[in-house]
Each structure stands twice: as structure tokens, then as C-alpha cells.
Amino acid sequence: TAEKIFVNNPSCMGMTYDDLIVMPGHIAFPVGDVDISSNLTRNIRLQVPFVSSPMDTVTEHQMAITMALQGGIGIIHSNMTAEEQAQEVLKVKKFKNGFILDPMCLSPDTTLGEVLKRKADLNFSSFPVTDTGKMGGRLIGIISNRDSAFIEDPNVKVTEFMTARDSLVVAKDGVSLEEANQILKESKKGKLPVVNDNDELVALIARTDLQKNKDNPRASKDSHNKQLLCGAAIGTRPDDKKRAQLLADAGVNVIVVDSSQGDSIYQIEMIKHLKAAHPQVDVIGGNVVTPSQAHHLIEAGADGLRVGMGIGSICTTQEVCAVGRAQASAVYHVAKYARKFGIPITADGGIQSTGHITKALCLGAGCVMMGSMLAGTDEAPGEYFYQDGVRLKRYRGMGSIEAMNAGGEKRYVWDTAQSHVKVAQGVSGAVTDKGTLRRYIPYLMQGVRHGLQDAGIPSVEASRDRLYNGTLSIKTTTPLSYILQAAMGQCSTLPSEGR
Ligand code: XMP
């Protein structure tokens, strides 16, 4: 049992994912029935327990949108200005709604040049035009790609080429999503503005959203206005409070306090501040690898914990600082402790295969956070390049010199003003092309389902019960007894697989 391996283990050895294997169980259900839904935080449950890491080569809005559409969640990195990060969150929140309750509107004075810039910045194709330039103003037209396609002068005002109000099909406030869908079908329009009795814009419905809604039954959405869930990372400096305010204003659902060693007075203070100032936003504290670290962050009010120190694929923290913990042990011990308080944990880093995900879940993790596994997908920031005929994307540690120079050092250095010498705790590299997340996430999900099925476990919840009631069998893959004997001088050579 896990208890035997992690607690009653006289060698005190830390276990990595590769040191362990889950023993098979009895299969009494089809693979498609394996339920992998799980909690990220106290209040956020995901259909797919996958989280993309807040790293500047992993999660910006495209990654976060696709992760959420696939049932997981993305955490937007903070290696950019607070305003830019809030914009990234806004792009995720605005991406897909049943009803878009606060569509980006244009005023009658907006020029074609400004429209084109907004289109590029926001990835939107159409904008309603209202007399105030805001939601709630009187609807006077809509701009779509077709309207602007043949205009060349960037200074022309929208009123000269928009589709004006009298040619628009609109719905009245109170329309249901089904009725709206029907109107869009019959009118063959792409957008349906919803107006009140004063002809003021109260919502916008997009045909593509309705379509996408159908295609993504697992999507992670808030129950309130059905926007995609989105997370964002912040540091623990005083100016991060302003960053958090902008993120909360943009509608962020979860803030990850991003630190390689989370058990600090700075983080405790930040968690307390966040919970008081933004009670609607869940907070994930970390990173931690021991119950005593976890205790401080839970006491401060964290709704979830991020577990892992120095075990990521681009990490050198364990070499440079000699501090950290083998990840399977960290996940087991922190998850077991946090469970007493109803706090889920996310196993962060070191995931290299679907098998590692299954192990993390079986050891008590609610979700897994991935960097290198996702950095090679189409949705990760950056362009592909070729090296020796292999298609790659750049991937770098946030503690690498390169990322620190771009602002990433806040995760590793508390007092930048006093720290003139930079000590890298990560490296830069590249990962191979993985194609689109839309195909890759279903592949990862299915791999995990097969793993749980082989172990005879029908759901992540059930794995939890089996873990703690001692009916989940785990074996060490390293022959521990030989290592122990060697350590005690009882045998001089190790079998090759034990070295
Ligand atoms: P994977 O293994 O998924 O790990 O690529 C991603 C996680 O690694 C952490 N991270 C770092 N750790 N130095 C470190 O020691 C770094 O430069 C670094 N950058 C990221 C982070 O927790 C991430 O989610």
C-alpha cells in the first residue's frame, strides 16, 4: 500500500513517479465509463484534470482557451505587464459564451484602422456599434468582416461602412438560447444582437459560439454566464496586488501565487490579501512539497495547493539550491495532509507521459500541471522551427537566465532590488511538435482512462478511496531491498536494474 511505501519506509527514500508502478485491479467497466473529473480547488471542478503551467512558453490566451474548451484550464503566465496579462484573461473570458454579456463595442467615431487593430488584438471578426461606444448604448449598427473587406482608407469612420440598425436582425431581451439559435438559422446571420425596449444593446449571440458549444461538451465554464474558466499567475511583491485587481476585474476565476518555494511570509500575506479583496476568486498557493509548508498556506486561506519543487523538465533548482523533494513522495504526503481540510492539490512538473498523470492521480493529486508536455502544441506561444529535420518549439524554465531577463525572476528571487547576481534555476531548450491540443488532450485523457481501468479504478474519486483505505497496490520498480542492503553494507553489488 501507499502507506507502506511512503510512511513505514525505513529507508526514508524519496520516490519519483518512475520508482513506482500501480498494480492491476479487476476491470468491471468499459474504458469510456472511467470518470476523470476532479477538483482543482475547493470550488472549481474540472471534467479533465489537466492544467497548463504559467510559463511564457506555455500559457497565453490561445492555450488557455483550448485547455478550457477541452475540459481543463490554463493559467496565464505573468511575464508581461499587469495590463497585458489582464487582456489575455479577458480574451479567454470573452471567447465563447451562450450570451456575450459584455461584447466589445465601437463608437460611431471609430475608424477602420482602429477596427482592424482591435480585430488583430482580440481575434474577433465583428463588433456592435452603439451611440456610447459601450454595452448598454443604443444599437446603431454592426461591423463584420464583409463590411470592411473592400474599404482601403484607414481613416474612414465605421458609420460609413457598417451594416446599419434598420438592416439588422435583432432579438428582444429575454430570448432563450434555443430561440436565438432558431433566429440565427433562419436569418443566416452570424451575430444576433439582443436589445431591450429602448433599443439598447444588452447581449450579443454568435452562431460560431453556439456551434462550438455543441462541439465541446466538456468545456470548463462558470455556471453564472457560461464563460470559459481561466486562471492567472501572480508573484508575491506589493505591486502584485494591483495585478490581482486587474485580473479580478477581467474575470479571472483562479489566481495562482507563483513561487518555487511557497512557504514564505510574503506568500502568506498575499493569500490573505487575495481572499479578503477578491472572495469570488479561488487562490492556489505553492509550490510546496511538505505538509508543514502546506499547513501555512492552508491556514492563510488557500483554496488549492500546487505541489512540486525542482522536478520539472527544465528545472535545476534541486541541483542549484539542493532543496526540493522527489515528486511522488511530495504528492502523496501533501495530498494526504490537505485532504483533511478539503483542499485539492495539483501535481506540478515532471509529467512526461500519460502514465505519470495516472500515478499522480492515484497518489492523491486532484489535477496535474504540465509544461513540457504542452509546450510543443500549436496553441503554445511561439513559432515552430526546424533543427536537424525535427519540428520544434522553444521551451524554457521561468528561472532560466533568458526568462528571468524577461521578468520571470519574481518566482525565484524575493528581493530583486538587493539581488544583483542572478542565479539560474532553470534552462532553455526546445520540445518536439505535438500538433493541436484539440487532438492531444483527448489522447492524454484516453491514456489516463486506460490506466485507471487497468488498475480497476472507475474514477478519480474512487482512486482516492482506494489510496486511503489501503486497497490500492503500488510496487516500487527499483528493488528497494537491494538498495537498503547495499546501504547497510550487506551486499556489495546491485543488480543492474537497481542502480
Ligand atoms: P514540466 O516538467 O511539466 O515542469 O516541464 C513544469 C513546471 O516546472 C516548474 N518550473 C521551473 N522549475 N526552474 C525550476 O526549478 C525553472 O526555471 C522552472 N520553470 C518552471 C513550474 O512549476 C512548472 O509548472
Global geometry: globular
Point out poorly predicted stretches.
491-499
Query: How many H/I helical runs?
Result: 18
The set of bound ligands, ions and cofactors reads: xanthosine-5'-monophosphate
Number of strands: 21
Spatial strand sequence of the major β-sheet = 4-5-12-13-14-15-16-17
Amino- and carboxy-terminal Cα gap: 24 Å
> How confident overall, as mean pLDDT?
90
* Helix/strand/pairing category: alpha/beta
Domain CBS: 99-158, 162-220
Protein name: Inosine-5'-monophosphate dehydrogenase
Enzyme class: oxidoreductase
Binding site for K(+): 310, 312, 315
Describe this protein's structure:
This protein is of the alpha/beta class and 499 residues long. It is built from 18 helices and 21 strands. The chain has helices at residues 2-7, 61-69, 82-95, 112-122, 145-148, 177-187, 207-215, 240-250, 265-277, 291-300, 317-321, 327-339, 354-362, 372-375, 401-405, 437-454, 460-468, 480-487, and strands spanning 20-22, 38-39, 45-46, 50-52, 73-76, 127-130, 139-143, 163-164, 171-172, 191-195, 201-206, 231-234, 254-257, 282-288, 304-307, 345-348, 367-370, 385-387, 390-396, 428-432, 474-476. Helix 13 links the parallel strand 16 and strand 17. The longest helix has 18 residues, at 437-454. The chain is globular. Residues 491-499 have low confidence and may be disordered. Bound molecules: xanthosine-5'-monophosphate. Xanthosine-5'-monophosphate binds next to strand 17 and helix 14.
How is the topology of this model organized?
Blueprint: H1 2-7, E1 20-22, E2 38-39, E3 45-46, E4 50-52, H2 61-69, E5 73-76, H3 82-95, H4 112-122, E6 127-130, E7 139-143, H5 145-148, E8 163-164, E9 171-172, H6 177-187, E10 191-195, E11 201-206, H7 207-215, E12 231-234, H8 240-250, E13 254-257, H9 265-277, E14 282-288, H10 291-300, E15 304-307, H11 317-321, H12 327-339, E16 345-348, H13 354-362, E17 367-370, H14 372-375, E18 385-387, E19 390-396, H15 401-405, E20 428-432, H16 437-454, H17 460-468, E21 474-476, H18 480-487
Parallel strand pairs: 4-5, 4-17, 5-12, 9-10, 12-13, 13-14, 14-15, 15-16, 16-17
Antiparallel strand pairs: 1-21, 2-3, 6-7, 7-8, 10-11, 18-19, 19-20
The protein binds xanthosine-5'-monophosphate.
Xanthosine-5'-monophosphate is lined by residues 53, 55, 260, 287, 308, 310, 312-315, 317, 348-351, 369-373, 397-400, 425-426.
